[in-house]
Amino acid sequence: MARAQKHLAISKRRPVWAEVSLSALAHNLHAIRELVNPPQEKRKFPRRVLSIVKGNGYGHGGPEVAKALEKAGSDWFGVTCTEEGIAVRKAGVRKPILVLTSFVEGEEAPLLEHGLTAVIHRCDQLAALEAAAARRRVRRGSIAFHLKIDTGMNRLGIATSDIDCFARQLGKCRHLHLGGVMTHLASSEVFSNTPAGEQTRQQEERFYAALDRLRALGIDPGIVHLANSAAITTRPETWADMVRPGAILYGYHPGYEPAERRAEFEARLPLKPVMSLRTRIISLRNISAGEGVGYDATFIAQRASRIALLAAGYGDGIHRSLGNRGSVLIHGKLAPIVGIVSMDVTMVDVTGVPDVELGDIATIYGTDGEHSHLASLVARGIGTVTSDLLCAVSERVPRLYLS
Question: Which residue of the set 42, 54, 95, 272 is catalytic?
Fold first, then answer.
């Protein structure tokens, strides 16, 4: 009944929507957990999985997918900021939520109020978090945080040379304790004989040396984690105590390099695409050879053609650069996008697709029965990453969650 009501609600709106398969999402989570916990390995505790649900769950709906992932057994969740974490918590998620880019001044109180775990990436953040914890009169050492160490990405994290400084500052904090230590791998999908191909090994060495220094200073690092999506699939030595899947949760592998090894790596972890972005044909017209389509007539028909107008554009999530380059799936066939993608509509050439009618569904990417038009292939065709397409699905596009 709930699904039927949701379908009815969508049918009364502008005809563009995203279908999110919760069964595919659960499949991917279970596949990741099984991969990083091989049965022949003798570990006291299984490796945990921290599901990345930042960026509105990579466009799938952060709170909604977090609820589904918690039900499927995710141990932790990762968000970008306090606001995202609060939205996930208010959706009813009880498992720990890690705020990956930490807090800004003034966010300490709501972060603690909603039971979020901060990532500390500058030593001076410890004093601010300690002061907020003291104001809440929490028990000694009851507020956990994770420390991020910069091992070569030069983005967020304390330098490895600042470990001693961190230890001194932590010693002044009565209410805090270190719950985990992390780093972020910059090039874990690259296996070519290049500086990027060597970077992961260098980062690992620096990270584990920093952990050794922490332990030498008498500090237990807690949960150790560094493996992102690419490292989960390809680098077992990085799995540590917990892994942080992002794109692979939603059904897509990163673009491993060299490209000849992609099939090998992808076969290690079979995934199911979670989102299918769809719209309907709202207009059909026949044009003659020599006629232009769309703004600036960037497409000129070379033959008599049948042009379908889709009720979605770049304001919904159809990447503008797909104009005259991309395709959509209609009746199991790929129909090329022609002309410039507009904010609210997109034109496609359906001359080669038989029996097209008003109201027919076009799949911008995803699956349609036995047919698929994968977002990863669409992204590669325009020189971007899959996450760029997934996160671009706008708020005005309703999400339909299917079991």
Answer: 54
